[in-house]
Specification:
five-stranded mixed β-sheet; alpha+beta
């Protein structure tokens, strides 16, 4: 699933390309991805409006339109935005005033499109916790102080801290030398500070390299993100740790596969 770096990459690329352009036509090829309103109201509510701004909240994109409505896009597991689109794999095609199209692709139909009068009213948005960049060390430490939950599932909980998923949680825990099965309450002050620093650094590096193309994620151009080659543990089961040469292990935690170094991470 695209995490904060991937969605931020798409947001920045959209800002450069589609701001101010008008949506002259909306073609719905599969209405399953439109969660609200109906497909007909979705089309009529967007057609003729210009794209005023592009926002991101955690893993969600918001396109604010000139008519006061907002197009809310949650890519989930396999959603893609591609410009200029070909229409070949598109579930919804937005034809723009420049004569080109923005394609919304989603092979497995898990993604969600919504047209809302107020995107802030969306229950998912209201339930989001702060992003790592919004937290000081003291605030982060306070959040962790009474949590007996294992640290990796906790930092993936979007209601606790938003934007971090399986990939970047694993990478940040490796950088901070924390075993993913540790409980949050067991972390020392130094470990909490190291983890927050690692989260911020990892996310910023991933944004710099346009995200990690795991499974279906691609940039707006259709190109793959370049951060995979910088992964320290994710997807490296059995390969030597880049620090101590111990083979990287993969285990299941909270129903998700996680990667870690059994020697470096304590």
């Amino acid at each position: 699933m695209p995490e904060l770096p991937e969605v931020e990459t798409i947001k920045r690329e959209l800002e450069k390309i589609i701001l101010g352009k008008k949506v002259v036509e909306v073609c719905v090829h599969n209405p399953v991805v439109i969660r609200e309103p109906s497909a007909d109201k979705f089309k009529s509510g967007i057609k003729g409006a210009s794209i005023k701004s592009v926002l991101r909240r955690a893993k969600v994109l918001i396109l604010e339109l000139s008519n006061g409505k907002s197009l809310v896009i949650h890519l989930k597991m396999t959603g893609q935005l591609v410009y200029p689109g070909s229409g070949k794999e598109s579930r919804v095609t937005f034809r723009l005033s420049d004569g080109k199209s923005l394609d919304f692709n989603d092979r497995r139909l898990f993604a969600e499109l919504r047209l809302l009068d107020d995107w802030r009213s969306l229950k998912f948005i209201q339930g989001l916790g702060p992003e790592p960049f919004e937290l000081s060390v003291d605030e982060f430490s306070a959040l962790l102080s009474r949590k007996k939950t294992k640290i990796k599932p906790l930092i993936m909980d979007q209601g606790f801290i938003s934007g971090v998923g399986n990939l970047y949680a694993a990478e940040a825990l490796f950088r901070s030398r924390i075993n993913p099965e540790r409980t949050a309450v067991s972390l020392s002050s130094q470990e909490k500070a190291a983890l927050l620093s690692a989260l911020k650094k990892t996310l910023l590096e991933a944004i710099e390299h346009k995200g990690s193309s795991i499974d279906q994620y691609v940039r707006l151009s259709g190109e793959r993100g370049g951060y995979v080659k910088y992964h320290k543990v994710y997807g490296r089961e059995g390969e030597p740790c880049l620090v101590c040469k111990t083979p990287i292990k993969r285990t299941s935690l909270g129903g998700r596969g996680t990667y870690f170094c059994p020697r470096c991470q304590r």
